[in-house]
């Protein structure tokens, strides 16, 4: 299978404004410390790590919301590492993002129909109304929802709108950043099932960022474990769970409280 | 005898729908009871009712909350506040918003002891140092002089735990205390709360949406749906065989990496319909 993403020695540092002297430049804070991996077309890859591990930063670099400070990101053969915005724009349709908090990533003043339609208009799609209807259909929301505002929806429904907006553009790649962490277990299960279905039906490539290994276990064939900006393990998910190699992966696994009073949780 | 005993507690939005429907539950001295349910099920509302901090937009329409044998709802407000302040405390969900960002940690722990319980300042400060050591904060002297933003989320949560235990309350309401934390930090914090609770013999009402967490820290649990207790069980019995169809479905929806295919199953529509019908029947039968 061809690779959709090829990441080579990816580095990203940001100015540490908490330590900026009065005069002069702030020291750089290294967030990603030289990552190497590939994402094959059609793969569902989990990216897991604790807070501060750099998982969201990595996600944002993949969809070029952040510009790397070193290394390279190739997307379907094109080097997008330092591509200027004008040249990125036509590519942006092809890599979409679903955000963690659907309430703050959906415009509260717009109806759902417009929220889904707007990016399609920006990218010059025709037949937008029919596409909105199809997107709603794909995520299992009734057509009437196009006329509703985000605050009229439940958390799970809002997250479906976020998914509909992303898939409406017919992207090759979707980055999902902690998209179920704010949801109740039942909505969580529904959104995950939906995502699984969409990946299969639409032939999507998905990177799923989460701090929750149980969720990744269910959805992803491969898992990348990040710790302090470096990859400590990158393997098939089943192997990772049956025989974790990195000490940090074991620590993450052992910390998960299973719904089982007999679990040894020392 | 139960230290906290709630009987037929009903709460509603003023002039609106019921939020708690004749809730009854008991927490024995030194016991940990989990309050479980999806968002909007009323689990936090029970904690707030016990602590007398219900928002102004809701009202209690019936029932009793007995704390150490005394019905709080029958007391005049000033007496109720004094009694709750002397016997109960809260560990809140979000450690960042629960601490005043513009004040040092030390004062935020000692205030309650000095202003509400009338302790000498020196005694309160000594107690604060002792507590920070007990919640395993390194360099307590320095941390007492820190501002909240200088500490990590886990450290802030430790401070709120220390603060809750400061006046040796008999009952603590923990409202989703680890929801905002990483799994590894969550584990440390849960172990810390469980350890403190056992050492101090405190009764704990533990609000959470996570059945995994319940199985680790609680001895009993109440499962809520739409403000109604659908199941009240001992933890061991519950995880062996939940009795109510809704609680069984909630358990099946909980992620379990050891059994990925049998977990993360959405609650079936039929189960939701059945439990809604049960709620409606209870509303017709009782006083809502």
Gyration radius of chain A, rounded: 19 Å
| Pair with the biggest interface | A-B, 33 and 36 residues
What is the oligomer described by this structure?
heterodimer
Gap from first CA to last CA of chain B: 28 Å
Let me know the largest β-sheet of chain A: 6 strands, mixed
Strands across the major sheet of chain A, in which order?
Answer: 6-7-8-3-9-10
Quote the average pLDDT of chain B: 93
The percentage of residues in β strands of chain A lies in 25-35%
Output the helix-strand order of chain B. EEEHEEHEHHHHHEHEHEEHHH
Lateral strand order in the biggest sheet of chain B: 6-7-8-3-9-10
Structural class determined from secondary elements of chain B: alpha/beta
* Name given to the CATH homologous superfamily of chain B: P-loop containing nucleotide triphosphate hydrolases
Structural class of chain A: alpha/beta
List the total number of helices of chain B: 12
What series of H and E elements makes up the topology of chain A? EEEHEEHEHHHHEHEHEEHH
The biggest beta sheet of chain B is recorded as: 6 strands, mixed
The level 1 CATH classification of chain B is Alpha Beta
- N-to-C span of chain A: 42 Å
Helix count of chain A equals 10
Q: How much helicity do the residues of chain A have?
A: 25-40%
Strand proportion of chain B, as a percent range, falls in 15-25%
Could you describe the 3D structure shown?
The complex is a heterodimer of chains A (266) and B (288). Chain A is α/β, with parallel strands linked by helices and 266 residues long. Chain A has a domain at 105-167. Chain A has ten helices and ten strands. Chain A has helices at 55-62, 85-92, 102-105, 112-122, 128-138, 155-168, 185-202, 213-219, 237-242, 247-255, and strands spanning 3-15, 28-40, 44-48, 70-75, 78-79, 95-98, 173-177, 205-210, 222-227, 230-236. In chain A, helix 7 links the parallel strand 7 and strand 8 (205-210). In chain A, helix 4 runs parallel beside helix 6 and helix 5 crosses helix 6 (155-168). Chain B is an alpha/beta fold and 288 residues long. Chain B has a single domain, classed as P-loop containing nucleotide triphosphate hydrolases (Rossmann fold). In chain B, 44% of the residues lie in helices and 24% in strands. Chain B has helices at residues 43-51, 77-87, 95-98, 105-116, 121-134, 140-145, 153-165, 183-200, 211-217, 235-240, 245-253, 269-285; strands at 2-13, 18-28, 32-36, 58-67, 70-71, 88-91, 171-175, 203-208, 220-225, 228-234. In chain B, the strands form two sheets. Chain B has a six-stranded mixed β-sheet, sandwiched between helices. A four-stranded antiparallel β-sheet of chain B has the order 2-1-4-5. In chain B, helix 4 (105-116) packs across helix 5 (121-134), helix 4 (105-116) packs parallel to helix 7 and helix 5 (121-134) crosses helix 7 (153-165). Chain B is globular. The chains are: A alpha/beta (266), B alpha/beta (288). Chain A binds chain B through residues 50-51, 155, 184-190, 192-193, 211-215, 217-218, 241, 251-261, 263, 265, and chain B through 38-39, 153, 182-187, 190, 209-216, 235-236, 239, 249-251, 253-258, 260, 263-267.
């Amino acid at each position: 299978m061809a690779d959709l993403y090829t990441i080579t020695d990816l580095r990203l540092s940001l100015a540490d404004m908490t330590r900026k002297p009065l005069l002069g430049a702030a020291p750089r804070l290294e967030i990603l410390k030289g990552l190497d991996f590939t994402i094959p077309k059609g793969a569902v890859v989990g990216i897991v790590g604790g807070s501060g591990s750099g998982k969201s930063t990595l996600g944002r670099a993949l969809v070029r919301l952040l510009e790397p400070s070193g290394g390279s990101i190739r997307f379907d053969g094109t080097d997008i590492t330092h591509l200027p915005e004008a040249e990125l724009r036509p590519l942006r349709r092809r890599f979409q993002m679903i955000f963690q908090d659907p309430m703050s990533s959906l415009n509260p003043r717009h109806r759902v129909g417009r929220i889904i339609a707007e990016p399609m208009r920006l990218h010059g799609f025709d037949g937008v109304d029919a596409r909105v209807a199809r997107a709603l259909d794909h995520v299992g929301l009734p057509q009437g929802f196009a006329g509703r505002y985000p605050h009229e929806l439940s958390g799970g429904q809002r997250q479906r709108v976020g998914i509909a907006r992303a898939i409406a553009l017919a992207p090759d790649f979707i980055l999902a950043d902690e998209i179920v962490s704010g949801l109740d277990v039942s909505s969580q299960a529904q959104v995950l099932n939906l995502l699984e279905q969409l990946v299969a039906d639409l032939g999507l490539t998905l990177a799923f960022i989460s701090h929750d290994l149980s969720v990744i276990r269910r959805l992803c064939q491969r898992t990348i474990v990040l710790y302090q900006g470096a990859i400590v393990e990158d393997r098939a998910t089943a192997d990772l769970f049956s025989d974790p190699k990195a000490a940090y992966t074991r620590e993450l696994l052992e910390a998960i409280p299973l719904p089982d009073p007999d679990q040894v949780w020392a | 005898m139960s230290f906290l005993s709630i009987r037929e507690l009903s709460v509603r939005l003023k002039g609106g729908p019921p939020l708690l429907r004749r809730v009854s539950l008991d927490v024995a001295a030194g016991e940990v009871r989990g309050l479980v349910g999806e968002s909007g099920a009323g689990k936090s509302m029970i904690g707030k009712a016990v602590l007398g901090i219900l928002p102004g937009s809701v009202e209690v329409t019936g029932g009793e909350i007995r704390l150490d044998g005394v019905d709080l709802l029958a007391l005049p407000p000033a007496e109720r506040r004094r009694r709750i302040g002397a016997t109960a405390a809260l560990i809140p969900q979000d450690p960042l918003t629960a601490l005043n960002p513009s004040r040092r940690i030390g004062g935020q722990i000692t205030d309650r002891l000095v202003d509400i319980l009338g302790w000498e300042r020196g005694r309160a400060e000594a107690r604060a140092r002792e507590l920070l050591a007990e919640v395993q904060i390194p360099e307590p002297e320095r941390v007492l002089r820190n501002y909240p933003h200088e500490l990590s989320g886990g450290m802030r949560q430790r401070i709120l735990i220390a603060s809750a235990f400061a006046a040796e309350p008999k009952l603590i309401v923990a409202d989703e205390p680890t929801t905002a934390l990483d799994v590894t930090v969550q584990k440390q914090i849960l172990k810390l709360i469980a350890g403190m609770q056992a050492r101090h013999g405190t009764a704990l009402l533990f609000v959470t949406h996570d059945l995994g967490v319940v199985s680790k820290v609680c001895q009993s649990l109440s499962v809520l749906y739409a403000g109604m207790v659908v199941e009240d069980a001992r933890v061991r019995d519950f995880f062996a065989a939940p009795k109510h169809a809704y609680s069984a479905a909630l358990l099946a929806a909980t992620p379990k990496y050891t059994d990925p295919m049998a977990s993360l199953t959405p609650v079936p529509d039929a189960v939701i319909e059945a439990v809604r019908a049960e709620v409606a029947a209870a509303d017709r039968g009782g006083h809502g």
